[in-house]
Amino acid sequence: MGFLLYFVLLLVVPIWAQMKVKSAYKKYSQVPASSGLSGAEVARKILDHNGLYNVRVEEVPGKLSDHYDPRSKVVRLSSQNYHGHSVAGAAVAAHEVGHAIQDQQDYSFLRFRHALVPAANLGSNFSFILILAGILLSFANLVLLGILFMAAAVIFQLVTLPVEFNASNRAMDQVVALGVIRNDEERETRKVLNAAALTYVAAALVAVLELVRFILMFIGMNQED
User: Fold this and answer.
1) Domain count of the chain?
2) Which of 10, 15, 160, 203 counts the highest number of beta carbons within 10 A?
3) Contact of 169 with 176, CB cutoff 8 Å
């Protein structure tokens, strides 16, 4: 029963989170923002208000491919959000600018996440290989090494949570303060941001569950020895 619940959580939670964000985005991308600003204009307005004149706003292909690139100092918005004038587009644009503001203010969790990137990449690429090899060879130390690699990736996922929630809070503060949205649009904007945050929560939950599973497996191997 425990394993069944584990696999249900592993499969259902991420799918549910993705469905929530797609549903919220689809719904509110059809709702025009009262300001009449496009996502690109929203991003530029918030950036300029915070003195981030050096940060560019660019269009990027794909759907919900929006992100902030701290190395190039660029806010990249998917075509629909870049050109669109919806509540959803404004929310996403403001969220990505939230990351640019974090970068400007040297936000500690953002810096920590950046520092974790090399270790997290190694963990994502090699942890399962090491763990599988350790299990097949009955070599517990190899499993332990894989778990340590995986732990780095899990820590990255956990540190991502405060980074994303903080960016969303900054986004809400900015769009309200600058009049990008009206009072009656705050609820809709927050729904888009909260739905997006769910995907990060789901990813972190799955990562933690996987790590716990392999830790228990490692303990079991040692007890057998």
Assistant:
1) 1
2) 160
3) no
